[in-house]
Amino acid sequence: ATCGHGCKYGECMGPNKCKCFPGFTGKTCNQDLNECGLKPRPCEHRCMNTHGSYKCYCLNGYMLMPDGTCASSRTCAMVNCQYGCEEVKGQVQCLCPSSGLQLGPNGRTCIDIDECSTGKAVCSYNRRCVNTFGSFYCKCQLGYELKYTSSHYSCADVNECVTNTHRCNLHAECLNTQGSFQCKCKQGYRGSGFDCA
């Protein structure tokens, strides 16, 4: 089975047929599935879509139970949490629906943790970190694209000279480099390669 475009978050099952991992969709499994939009809804009250998954949380006055349902709680109502709460040994604590969120200074609302700037996120070689609300993902560095070769994904150099995405002058030659390109004026012309006279 060969999938010409590869299967980003899935496996190649037949000629250009991808079987997506849970939480992903699309012809090449490159799109996040919004589980919050599914019928029946996966959460009783509120749902937050995350990259490849989702989180449930409850309206104020309710607390999230281990099975994902929301149970009425007078103590939670009094604390006025943004994303529901839990009671631990009689103490009420507000919750955040993702490990990429933390309780704000007021102890009731959740604020984003920027995993990219705090160094919590580790992206492999040739990938850069992109922060999202409550999470992050790794993307190929500029000048590289995700390619599926020999049964795994890697960030391969984009040949701007072949893809015609260079900005070289009409009277210049394009030379591909790792992650970028160079322009050199042809014989008889002078300039930067972007401008040749």
Automatic annotation (TrEMBL):
<dbReference type="InterPro" id="IPR001881">
    <property type="entry name" value="EGF-like_Ca-bd_dom"/>
</dbReference>
<feature type="domain" description="EGF-like">
    <location>
        <begin position="32"/>
        <end position="71"/>
    </location>
</feature>
<feature type="domain" description="EGF-like">
    <location>
        <begin position="157"/>
        <end position="195"/>
    </location>
</feature>
<dbReference type="InterPro" id="IPR009030">
    <property type="entry name" value="Growth_fac_rcpt_cys_sf"/>
</dbReference>
<dbReference type="InterPro" id="IPR018097">
    <property type="entry name" value="EGF_Ca-bd_CS"/>
</dbReference>
<protein>
    <submittedName>
        <fullName>EGFL6 protein</fullName>
    </submittedName>
</protein>
<dbReference type="GO" id="GO:0005509">
    <property type="term" value="F:calcium ion binding"/>
</dbReference>
<dbReference type="GO" id="GO:0007155">
    <property type="term" value="P:cell adhesion"/>
</dbReference>
<keyword id="KW-0272">Extracellular matrix</keyword>
<dbReference type="GO" id="GO:0030154">
    <property type="term" value="P:cell differentiation"/>
</dbReference>
<feature type="domain" description="EGF-like">
    <location>
        <begin position="112"/>
        <end position="150"/>
    </location>
</feature>
<keyword id="KW-1015">Disulfide bond</keyword>
<keyword id="KW-0217">Developmental protein</keyword>
<dbReference type="InterPro" id="IPR052235">
    <property type="entry name" value="Nephronectin_domain"/>
</dbReference>
<keyword id="KW-0221">Differentiation</keyword>
<keyword id="KW-0245">EGF-like domain</keyword>
<keyword id="KW-0964">Secreted</keyword>
<dbReference type="InterPro" id="IPR000742">
    <property type="entry name" value="EGF"/>
</dbReference>
<dbReference type="InterPro" id="IPR049883">
    <property type="entry name" value="NOTCH1_EGF-like"/>
</dbReference>
<dbReference type="Pfam" id="PF07645">
    <property type="entry name" value="EGF_CA"/>
</dbReference>
<dbReference type="InterPro" id="IPR000152">
    <property type="entry name" value="EGF-type_Asp/Asn_hydroxyl_site"/>
</dbReference>
<keyword id="KW-0677">Repeat</keyword>
<comment type="similarity">
    <text>Belongs to the nephronectin family.</text>
</comment>
<keyword id="KW-0106">Calcium</keyword>
<keyword id="KW-0732">Signal</keyword>
<keyword id="KW-0130">Cell adhesion</keyword>
